[in-house]
Amino acid sequence: MSGHTDMVLVDENGIRIDGRRVDEKRPIKIEAGVLKNASGSCYLEIGKNKVLCAVYGPRECRPRHLQDPTKAVIQVKYNMEAYSVTDRKRPGTDRRSVEISKLIAEALECVVQTELYPRASIDVYIEILQANAGTRCAGLTAASVALADAGIPMRDIVPAIACGKADGNVLLDLNKEEDNYGQADVPIAIVPSTDEIVLLQMDGNMTREELDHGLDMAIAAAHEVYEIQRDALKRRYASISKKEGESDE
Ligand code: CDP
């Protein structure tokens, strides 16, 4: 955000550098159950972002001092691989990954029925294999699917997407250039059954009217992401049922 470029991010016809309209999200692909050893897993692509998520648990919480006698704790580790960006990213935990892990865990706590598993831990690993802006939203969207794939009871699954502003236009789902050189980036996640907002951040500046417009676009798009998450889970359950049917024969 706030970098400078001579690049035209949105042309006079309202078309963005990747050919999208201002209210268009990037293509999304979601596949559940991609890792055999995890309790639940998900692979997700949105535009050039590629994300893998693995869920383990509920299992005994380690380290023990983190145990909560009233509920499970959700431990999220968001990690951006060194090779995921064009400039090599220094491997390991940094302030940004700690912040993103914390806000994803807080969003998931709003839907996971943690009270069913006192003293347990639900461990969520999010690996960003390729990054092109919007990775926290992609990571949270994938994590919800992986938790559902693990069979962990949830009130709902959480879709996430960003809105923002570049070249004076309110945009849906910013790509890297729009994120780097635009005026605002606003990731949001919702609980679709209630439209409750479980993640909202704002980097940059927008007027109140622009923000309202951006949030309307992002909430509508989040409902579309939700349908893609549900379709991925339906495909996963259909393939499990088919395999079980075959082994019964
Ligand atoms: O990915 P997200 O939009 O959630 O977070 P960000 O901190 O706004 O980062 C935006 C983008 O900048 C990332 O998706 C990466 O493409 C890029 N980035 C990078 O190239 N190197 C970093 N150390 C961090 C981010």
Polypeptide structure, described:
The chain is α+β, with helices and mostly antiparallel strands and 249 residues long. The chain is built from four helices and ten strands, in the order E-E-E-E-H-E-H-E-E-H-E-E-E-H. It has helices at 95-109, 135-149, 176-181, 208-248; strands at residues 28-32, 40-46, 49-60, 73-80, 120-130, 160-166, 169-172, 184-191, 196-200, 203-204. The strands form two sheets. Strands 1-2-3-5-4 form a five-stranded mixed sheet. Strands 6, 7, 8, 9 and 10 form a five-stranded antiparallel sheet that branches. It is globular and about 60 Å long. The model has no long low-confidence stretch (mean pLDDT 96). Cytidine-5'-diphosphate binds at residues 85, 89, 96, 131-136, 176, 179, 185.
Order of helices and strands: EEEEHEHEEHEEEH
Number of helices: 4
Molecules bound to protein: cytidine-5'-diphosphate
Low-confidence stretches: none
Structural class: alpha+beta
Helix content percent band: 25-40%
The radius of gyration is 19 Å
Describe the sheet with the most strands: 5 strands, mixed
Question: Reading side by side through the largest sheet, how are the strands ordered?
Answer: 1-2-3-5-4
List how many beta strands DSSP finds: 10
Overall outline: globular
Distance between the termini: 58 Å
Assembly type: single chain
Give the strand content.
25-35%
What's the mean pLDDT score? 96
